[in-house]
């Protein structure tokens, strides 16, 4: 991006972040459902699922899936903010000003990245309070942060499309609901080899499972095997498609 686009994007991102910081409840709400799920699975179902393992150990097992649920939950607010700016004429107003057109859209994307990573940090805090521990070094933490940031970017660009094209607020945010529950049909809560045939096939061939396995292996200081390449292939592929689709819809809307 040129210096002009970067400068405009930075200013507009600051504007968008102010709206987020003035309604901290959205960040808290984003983390509530994943945290509730974590508490439920650890303290209610954990004894049966983890077969006697300590609660701290089971928290470490399911935490990667809970983190992905947190991001998926927060994406609905991204679609909501984009939809609101579209319907209230903010996009049209900025279009009439000497501002880079893509800067408006990128400001929403960057705001989503910041807001969702804050929600993820809140979930991490609760997980540590519940007994989660890991001895990984700085490099592994950066790797986990990078994976979560890329996953957030993927879902954010996916959220751009319904945010720009939906006819109602509920329509803009409803697309995130299947994403929130996708970790349930993956390796996030139980090993996939415990699932019946067709369910197991789906769980092992959808994007959440390799992402979860990679983050879990990093936390456990184990080899990440080929899962990391499968996870990256899924995320980069979806990101390219979502970015292209989002830009096409955006240009149509502001033309």
Largest sheet at a glance? none
Tell me the domain tally.
Answer: 1
Please give the radius of gyration in angstroms: 19 Å
Strand portion = under 5%
What average pLDDT do the residues reach? Answer: 81
Strand-pairing-aware structural class:
mainly alpha
Question: Which stretches of 5+ consecutive residues score pLDDT under 50?
Answer: none
N-C termini distance = 21 Å
Order of helices and strands: HHHHHHHHHHH
The helix fraction, in percent, is over 70%
**Annotation field: number of helices:** 11
DSSP strand tally: 0
- Based on Cα principal axes, name the global outline: globular
What would your notes on this structure say?
79% of the residues lie in helices and 0% in strands. The protein has 255 residues and is an all-alpha fold. The chain has one domain (3-254). Helix 6 runs parallel beside helix 11. The model has no long low-confidence stretch (mean pLDDT 81). It is found in: Cell membrane; Membrane. This is Transport permease protein. One of its GO terms (molecular function) is ABC-type transporter activity. Pfam families: ABC2_membrane.
Tag the structure with descriptive keywords:
single chain, 255 residues, mainly alpha, 79% helix, 0% strand, transport
Topology, please?
Layout: H1 3-22, H2 25-49, H3 55-87, H4 90-95, H5 101-129, H6 138-165, H7 169-174, H8 176-181, H9 197-204, H10 208-219, H11 227-254
Helix pairs in contact: 1-5, 2-3, 2-5, 3-5, 3-6, 3-10, 5-6, 6-10, 6-11, 10-11
Provide a compact summary of the structure.
With 255 residues, the chain is mainly alpha-helical. The chain is built from eleven helices and no strands.
């Amino acid at each position: 991006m040129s210096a002009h686009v970067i400068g405009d994007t930075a200013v507009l991102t600051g504007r968008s972040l102010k709206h987020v910081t003035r309604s901290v409840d959205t960040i808290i709400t984003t983390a509530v459902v994943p945290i509730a799920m974590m508490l439920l699975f650890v303290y209610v179902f954990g004894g049966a699922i983890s077969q006697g393992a300590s609660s701290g150990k089971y928290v470490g097992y399911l935490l990667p899936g809970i983190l992905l649920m947190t991001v998926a939950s927060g994406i609905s607010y991204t679609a909501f903010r984009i939809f609101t700016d579209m319907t209230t004429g903010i996009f049209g107003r900025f279009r009439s000003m000497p501002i880079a057109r893509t800067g408006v859209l990128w400001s929403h994307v960057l705001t989503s990245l910041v807001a969702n990573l804050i929600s993820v940090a809140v979930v991490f805090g609760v997980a540590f309070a519940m007994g989660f521990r890991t001895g990984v070094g700085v490099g592994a933490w950066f790797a986990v942060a990078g994976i979560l940031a890329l996953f957030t970017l993927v879902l954010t660009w996916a959220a751009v499309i319904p945010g720009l094209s939906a006819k109602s607020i509920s329509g803009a945010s409803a697309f995130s609901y299947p994403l929130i529950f996708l970790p349930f049909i993956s390796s996030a809560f139980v090993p996939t080899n415990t699932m019946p045939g067709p369910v197991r096939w789906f769980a092992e061939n959808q994007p959440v499972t390799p992402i979860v396995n990679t983050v879990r292996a990093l936390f456990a200081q184990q080899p990440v095997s080929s899962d990391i390449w499968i996870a990256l292939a899924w995320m980069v592929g979806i990101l390219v498609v979502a970015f292209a689709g989002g830009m096409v819809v955006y240009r149509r809307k502001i033309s």
